[in-house]
Specification:
Distance between the termini: 25 Å
Number of strands: 14
Number of domains: 2
Helix content: 25-40%
Order of helices and strands: EEHEHHEHHEHEEEHHEHEEEEEH
């Protein structure tokens, strides 16, 4: 998959695709539906996605808590796995945000990337102050000789699938619901940093990973798997939160204990997939009580992970 971060002066090999439009945060089953719709519309054209980095909300509302389901690299990997050949990841800055809807269609979609066909959801909006609607895009694309397909709404028995619905499921402590809507377990990807080694003194050494720009899910303890740099997957138990028993910090972090693992992970990038929420974060009267509870959590995590279908990690 080619990743292209500009729309100007592109070679022919980076033009002429069937282009799905959107933020694609999470690359969930609704996004998969949009991509399949795009390929069905013009199966002869390269499969392409046009998205933005950072997410527009990060530019317009910088003081909001982190909300991303997938960061740039994770999103690209998920799209590549779905057969996307061209990923236009356009820098979303103040100047780009002031581009009118008509400029976006003509300068970016037609002249820039040479889109043969466009696909978007029924609520897609674009251009300065979201001035471009699907109706505007349809009329303008027809005038320019670009095809357009509006993907039908997509959902399951619980309703529509969207990034916001998945965020709510994670924040409410239901990672299995997020898994069902994503088509895979939701994972936090980050680099292992040095901590205070408190877990090691308790008999449960942990890999410490900052949440960064990822959404913070419900604080508490999870059954997890970790994808290691060599591609292997290790089971474990993790805490996400502020560690009220041992710390007065205000920043949440992810601490992962991998079962039966003794390697050095400092500086390694791990993908920690959440499979089940075991309990909410709580304060314990002392380290002995905390140690006992961690042992119970580890056993509960082992039991939950043992019940997972093969290949679901």
């Amino acid at each position: 998959m080619q990743i292209i971060r500009d729309w100007r002066d592109l070679p022919g090999s980076a033009r002429g695709g069937t282009v799905a439009l959107g933020n694609f945060d999470g690359v969930h089953l609704g996004h998969v539906h949009v991509l399949r719709t795009a390929h069905a519309a013009r199966p002869d054209a390269p499969r392409a996605v046009l998205t933005f980095e950072p997410h527009p909300r990060e530019l317009f509302r910088p003081d909001d808590p982190p909300f991303r389901l997938t960061l740039s690299g994770e999103r690209a990997a998920a799209l590549a796995a779905l057969g996307v050949e061209l990923l236009y990841e356009l820098p979303f800055d103040r100047a780009f945000s002031e581009m009118t809807a008509d400029q976006f269609v003509v300068e970016v979609l037609q002249c820039g990337i040479g889109a043969k066909h466009l696909v978007c959801g029924p609520d897609f909006a674009f251009g300065h102050r979201r001035g471009g609607s699907v109706g505007f895009l349809s009329a303008r694309a027809e005038m320019l000789g670009i095809g357009l397909t509006i993907a039908s709404p997509f959902g399951d028995a619980s309703g529509a699938i969207s990034s916001s619905v998945i965020r709510r499921a994670l924040q409410d402590g239901y990672p299995e619901r997020a898994t069902a809507m994503l088509g895979r377990p939701w994972a936090i990807v980050g680099t292992v940093q040095h901590g205070d080694a408190r877990g090691r003194t308790l008999g449960f050494p942990t890999a410490n990973i900052p949440l960064g720009r990822h959404l913070e899910p419900a604080r508490g303890v999870y059954a997890v798997t970790a994808r290691l740099p060599d591609g292997t997957v290790a089971p474990g138990v993790a805490n996400i939160g502020r560690r009220p028993t041992v710390s007065a910090g205000i920043e949440s972090r992810l601490e992962v204990h991998l079962f039966d693992y003794a390697g050095d992970l400092y500086g390694a990038e791990l993908a920690i997939a959440l499979h089940g929420f075991l309990r909410a974060e709580q304060r314990f009267p002392g380290l002995d009580a905390l140690r006992l509870q961690i042992a119970r959590d580890a056993e509960a995590a082992r039991r939950l992970l043992d019940r997972l279908p093969a290949g679901s990690a």
